[in-house]
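Per your request, structure below.
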């Protein structure tokens, strides 16, 4: 079994500053259902996708044009047994210049084949980073999850909400 972290990389024509801005426009590529501040150091934000995935995340690192780091504080999937999967994991976006292009390398530290959610999460990141964030960077329009309204675990969501 391979215990390496999940990583995906994309190469774009846009500047490191444009890539950094797109990453921090999380509602433009991951989900319109994110609540809280996502682009200030040590701030926490809340994400949910229906009743399937709820997560509380902290902005752990910001280096304009170079890096964004998020740390998962709380997490719950409704389709796996281990509710600790993702907790303590870091989601790291590294931005580097390669000649006239910019490379974005995303690493989910801790996500590996031993995780029960591995295949679903692998497919999810391939879509969110490799497709939606790529499109936001290159065309200005990503494909985030739309606002849902009702239909999720409101009690758990309220418990995790930011104070």
């Amino acid at each position: 079994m391979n215990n390496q972290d999940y990583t995906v990389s994309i190469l774009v024509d846009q500047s490191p500053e444009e890539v950094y801005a797109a990453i921090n426009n999380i509602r433009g590529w991951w989900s319109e259902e994110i609540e809280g501040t996502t682009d200030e150091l040590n701030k926490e934000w809340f994400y949910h996708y229906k009743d399937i995935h709820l997560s509380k995340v902290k902005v752990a690192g910001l280096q304009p044009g170079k890096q964004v780091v998020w740390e998962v504080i709380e997490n719950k999937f409704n389709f796996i047994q281990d509710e600790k999967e993702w907790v303590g994991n870091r989601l790291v976006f590294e931005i580097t210049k390669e000649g006239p292009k910019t490379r974005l390398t995303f690493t989910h530290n801790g996500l590996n084949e031993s995780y029960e959610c591995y295949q679903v999460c692998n497919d999810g990141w391939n879509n969110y980073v490799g497709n939606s964030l790529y499109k936001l960077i290159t065309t200005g329009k990503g494909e985030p999850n739309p606002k849902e309204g009702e239909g999720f675990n409101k009690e758990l969501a309220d418990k995790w909400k930011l104070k």
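The two ends are 41 Å apart (CA to CA).

Regards,
D.
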